[in-house]
Amino acid sequence: MQANPQSQRVWLCDSSLRDGSQGKQIAFSVADKIDIIRALDEQGIPFIEAGNPSAGPKDVQLFERMRSIPLQNSRLVAFGATRRKNCRPQDDVGLQALLAAGTEYVTVFGKSWDMQVDQVLRTTLEENLAMISDTVANLVAQGRQVLYDAEHFFDGYRHNPTYAMQTVRAARQAGATCVILCDTNGAALPAEVGAVTAQVVRQLGGEVGIHCHDDIGCAVAASLAAVEAGARHVQGTFVGYGERCGNANLSTILPVLQLKMGYSCVAPQQLPLLTGTARHIADISNVILRSSLPFVGSGAFSHKAGMHVDAVHKNSQTFEHIDPGQVGNERHILISEVGGKAALLHSVKKIQPDIKKDDPVIEQIRETIKKKEMEGYQYESAEASLKLLILGHLKRLKPHFKLDMYRIMGEQNSNIFSLSTAIVKVTVGDGWEMTADEGKGPVNALDKATRKAVTKFYPAIQKVRLIDYKVRVVDQNTASAARVRVLIETSDGEETWTTVGTSRDIIKASLRAIVDSLEYKLSRDDGSL
Ligand SMILES: CC(=O)SCCNC(=O)CCNC(=O)[C@H](O)C(C)(C)COP(=O)(O)OP(=O)(O)OC[C@H]1O[C@@H](n2cnc3c(N)ncnc32)[C@H](O)[C@@H]1OP(=O)(O)O
Ligand SMILES: CC(=O)C(=O)O
């Protein structure tokens, strides 16, 4: 693993499956881990710290399974600690488990901070140095490339720089391929990380890396400062999960290094995979990706304020630092009360491409949106409802059905799994259909009964499924009489769309969103949208 001075390669190491899984609410199955390894391999991440074989059978099984799964771009790294105190490496169960993982690369972490040696390991400073060198030497002797994680390096260096340097020298002299300086407590300032890294690069020589945590929100900045100071190996997790406040976010670091600082991390054709990889990893982790996440969040290239939207249409560089396509993301124009005609025009043109900005209907639609937003509607995330509203103003909406009546009955007991029943009457032209269905709660029952009734007239609705349901109180001051906004996400297996409904009655708000979701599907199918 040598840095190529011509292309200035920075080697990324993703630890989503090791340090990431130390994050709150993150738990991966072996299958999840394999799925994430495949995504990172496709993304071109050279090192994947996949697990800690001494932590339990799951990671042992993972490394076993991975022996028969070839990777194109990545190398798996097994992770573990230096040998225990007063123990020979060959007798240390953790080290034996690390070797048994069978990976060419291993990471071992050791203590750099004298206080930790004294109070956590409860041994002498000399024994800690021996633990580091024995461990690294033993692994090197067994043919492993060792990435040495110098735990708490920056805290250690602040308190006792001489000893901190002795620990990393011990690892280097024992044959470590790369010495990684860890800001384990995540509280070192970027300037300090840069200055200390520069000292280490100068005094230690060879490959130096960086591993930062985000406890003061500076993990990305500190990692970049370390690279500027000469580090050429950067550890982090792809969407920032990790112990406490998380690890340095590689989906930010990668494009900054490559697009802003001129380093090479992945092949140019792999960069546009970035957004898809981040979203895929978030999905598998069952965590919602923060929409404001740089580069990959759904809001990273979203424009809401009317003046910004107008300017972006004139020249995208006015409010976008890169073309979103470079990282596989896309621009979103959000329609809201702070939007102007330019923002709206963008949405109306999707339905009527020849419409002009000065067409009076644009102003009428804008007025309706403002009025609806006063009632609690919000169209930013409910594009399907917005399209129906626009279609109505363009006099092109042909309602496919009318919901005449509904009734809900709930079982009056305390069993939380009790069923609700909904009865719904729908008319289409001269025909009508009355249907009942049961569900886990009134909204579920209503959704099922409405879809069942509409399916009688439009069989395509059978494929439609509600996939997400969110309720937000709009005016909290009126307590249980508050107005609520319901957002529902629907899919027909090919497309996913979101609709909105509001009311003081949660059932009515839900029903409005459900009716819009079916109407949207039918309008798409008949070519109106
Ligand atoms: C900064 C980091 O993220 S480092 C990675 C931390 N990750 C984890 O801890 C997750 C995986 N860990 C585990 O599954 C368990 O801790 C195991 C299986 C490894 C060890 O379990 P146990 O034997 O029960 O030990 P336990 O977790 O209670 O205590 C940790 C031990 O590791 C020792 N230790 C801590 N750091 C190091 C180190 N760098 N090198 C060697 N030993 C260390 C501690 O001194 C303590 O030993 P002691 O009990 O003799 O005082
Ligand atoms: C090794 C590691 O994860 C840390 O020091 O933060």
From TrEMBL:
InterPro entries in the cross-refs: 2-isopropylmalate_synth_dimer (IPR013709), AIPM/Hcit_synth_CS (IPR002034), Aldolase_TIM (IPR013785), Citramal_synthase (IPR005675), LeuA/HCS_post-cat (IPR054691), LeuA_allosteric_dom_sf (IPR036230), PYR_CT (IPR000891)
Q: Which reaction does it catalyse?
A: pyruvate + acetyl-CoA + H2O = (3R)-citramalate + CoA + H(+)
Keywords recorded for this protein, A-Z? Amino-acid biosynthesis, Branched-chain amino acid biosynthesis, Isoleucine biosynthesis, Transferase
Q: Where is the Pyruvate carboxyltransferase domain?
A: 10-272
What molecular function terms (GO) are annotated for this protein?
Answer: (R)-citramalate synthase activity; 2-isopropylmalate synthase activity
In terms of Pfam families, this protein maps to:
HCS_D2, HMGL-like, LeuA_dimer
Top-level taxon of origin:
Bacteria
Q: What is its EC number?
A: 2.3.3.21
Which GO terms of type biological process are on file?
A: isoleucine biosynthetic process; L-leucine biosynthetic process
Entry keyword annotation includes Amino-acid biosynthesis: yes
Is the Amino-acid biosynthesis keyword given for this protein? yes
Q: To which pathway does this protein belong? A: Amino-acid biosynthesis; L-isoleucine biosynthesis; 2-oxobutanoate from pyruvate: step 1/3
Say which family it is in: Belongs to the alpha-IPM synthase/homocitrate synthase family.
**PANTHER family, alphabetized:** (R)-CITRAMALATE SYNTHASE (PTHR43538:SF1), ALPHA-IPM SYNTHASE/HOMOCITRATE SYNTHASE (PTHR43538)
Return the protein name: Citramalate synthase
